[in-house]
Structure formats: structure tokens, C-alpha cells
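pinned: reference chain
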Amino acid sequence: MNHFAHLVLSQPTVESTVGNLLGDFARGVNRKDLAHSINAGLENHRAVDRFTDTDSTIKELKQMFQPGRRRFAGIALDVYFDHLLMKHWSSYDIRPLHEVIQIFYHRMTEGQSIMPSSTMRTTTLRIIRYDWFGSYRQIDSIAQALDRIASRIRYRNDFANAIEDIDKHSEEIESAFLDFFPRLQTHVQSLALESNIPQLCQDS
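pinned: its C-alpha cells
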């Protein structure tokens, strides 16, 4: 799952937002220095990733990508799933999508002071400034995001133009996502990793 989906699966607090985003920025972070609520959010993030990576449906989707791109197919699917989550938003939440995006941006802004990674602070501010979540509603923005990821990989790869494989199998991927995401939601709810965790930064 990518940033937006992780936040959808988080709790409505600043600390949960920080913890659930931290999974992508945790290298070098000493977890002993983190508040319990942030650690719980990080555990939730990792539980989401484990469930996604081991799901048989997701494994089948990765095989649809060309061999040269298959190593990074999970990344491509994560980003595209944000797009699909937004496309079918009314199936998952009664609130307007644009309002939820602004709520997430507000929590990310409020959480800057408790983010333990400078890279995390820089990236989340870029997400807000350039409205990454809002742009993910457009498939062209997904294609651009995937190409940016390919350009940041430090060794030669064939990940560029990954949107080609997504376009070719878009119907199968969308159908699989609509089956998968509710199961993921149920799994997260059953684990309840963030239940009964003291929260310091409640939404106002």
C-alpha cells in the first residue's frame, strides 16, 4: 500500500498518521525513542504491508508485469492502488474525498515536530505542497509518479513506463483491488494494533 491507503487504514490522530507513514522512512530511526502511539502506527503500517505482500491475489497481479519490471511490480501496484481507492472512494467512506485529503494534510502538518526523520519531514511537506494525493486521482499523475520512482533507483532498471503494464491489465487489477481492499480493512480491524494506545495529539 502507498501513503494514502496507509492513512485510510490509520486512526484519526496526528500520532497515528505519523506512525502509519513512518514505515517508509524508518531506516535509522531508534524505535525506543518513539511514543507508544507512534510505534503502534508503525506496527500497523508493517502489518498492512505483510498482508499485502503475502496475499495470493497480489502475487498473481505482480506476474502480469513484464519480467524486467516484475521486481518493482509491488511498488507500481501500491501507487496504482491509491488511484483505485480514490476512484471508488464512495464505497469506503461517506465523506467527500477532497475533505479527507485535507484532513490528512492537516495531520501531516501538525505532526512535523514529532516525525523522527528529516527525510520524512521533507517528503510529507512535498506531498502537501504539490498535492500528491489530489493528483493521484488522475492516471497521468500515476504514470509520472512511477517514472519518478524509476529515476530514483540507483542502479540500472527497466521500471520506467510501468504504466504500460498497468494499462494492459487495468481491468484485472481493478477487479482484484475491489476484492482485496475490503479484506485488508477487515484484517487491520481484527488486529486492532492501535487500540487502547494513549494519543497525545487528537484532532481538534
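why pinned: The first helix runs from residue 3 to 8. The mean pLDDT is 93.
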